[in-house]
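Re: weekly structure request thread

Next one in the queue (393 aa):
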Amino acid sequence: MRANTGFAQMKIRFALDCLLIGICLLAAPLVYLASVPAQESSAPSPTLKEAFNGDFRIGASVNQNQFEGRDKRAAAIIPAQFNTITPEGALKWEPLHPEPHRYDFSSADKYVAFGEKYKMWIVGHCLVWHAQTPNWVFEEAPGKLVSREVLLERMHEHIRTVVGRYKGRIAGWDVVNEALNEDGTLRQSRWMQIIGEDYIAKAFQFAHEADPAAELYYNDFDLEIPTKREGAIELIKKLQAQAIPVKAVGMQDHVRLKWPSVAEEAATIEAFARLGLKVNITELDVDVLPPVKKELMADVAKSIASTPELNPYVDGLPVGVQQELAKRYAELFAAFMKHREVITRVTFWCVTNGDSWLNNWPVRGRTSYPLLFDRNGQPTSAYASVIRAALAR
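Done, posted below.
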C-alpha cells in the first residue's frame, strides 16, 4: 500500500474526473463514457499499471499486428497501460513449429523484443495444449498415432528448443493449458491417450530443465466450478508430491455478468492459495452478449452462426448494460484487491473490444464489449470502475 501526498491528490483528481464523466453519460445515454474528451479533465487519471502498482501486475494478450507495430491504436495503449504481456498465438505450437524439422521464430522473437523494449514481464503461452497443435506431433502417418516414447521425445525436443531459446527473457510459462474437463477429470486429449496422465508432470519437468529460473504455471478456464476446481487441486497436489515446481495456477476468468459470483471467485483463489501457490488471472474478459447454451464452457473448438437475437448490440452497448459491466468489473477487481497478497498478475484477453475473440466465439461475427477499451481505443466506464477499485484500497 502506498500512502503519499501525490497519490492522494491523484485519487482526488480521479474522483472529479469520474463525476464529470458521469454527468456526460447521463446527458448522452447512448454514448460510451469513454467518449468524454481527455482535455475536459483538469488532470489525467492514473493508468492501469500506475493504479495497481505495488499490488499486482496488470496486462493484456497481444497479437502480431500489435507487437509488430501495425496496429497503432493498440500499440499505443499497451505500453501506456500494461506492464505484462501474453502472446495470443505467437508461441503456440501450430505457428511456431508447423513441421517436424522446421521452427518459425519470426513472430515469437518480435513478441519478446516488444516486451523487452518496454521492460515488461513477458509470459510464454503455451507449451502443451490439446488445441492448435499440428497433427504431425501425434501421428507417424495420417491416422496412425505415434508411441508414448516418440511423443514424449517430440514434446521434450519442442520444450527444450522453445524455452531454451528464450531462457532468461520469458519470465513465466503456461506449461500445460486446459487439461481438465468440467467434472474435474483429465481431458482425453491425444497427449493423455498416448502418453498417459504423467504427460503433465513431464511437460513441467522439461520446462524446468530448459530454464530453471522461469516461473511455471498450470492454466485453465471455469475453475470456479466446484468439480473442476477440485480436479485442479488434486492435479496440483500430485505434481507437488513429485516435487514438480508449479509456481501458480492461471485462472482464465472468461466470465459473464452474473457468473461466477464474487464468493465463487474468492473461494477459488483461496483454494489455490492454501496449496502454497500464487494465482494468475490470465485471460480476463466479461461476456455481455446472450449465451447460446446453458453450460459454462470456453472451448475454442465450438462456434455457431450469428442471428439478430444473439447479436443485439451492433449499434452500441446500451447505457444500462454499460453500467452492469462497470459494476461487474468493479466487484471482480475488489475481489482481486482483497487477495492481492496471492494474486501476482491480472491479464485481460485482448486489448480493445474490437480485438476480442468473443466477436467470433462461440458465435461468429458478433459485436462484443468485454474489455475496458472500446473499438476506438478509448477507455470505457468499465475502465473507470476498475481504476476506482484500485484507488479504494
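The CA atoms of residues 313 and 367 lie 6 Å apart. The domain at 54-391 is CATH 3.20.20.80 (TIM Barrel).
Next request, please.
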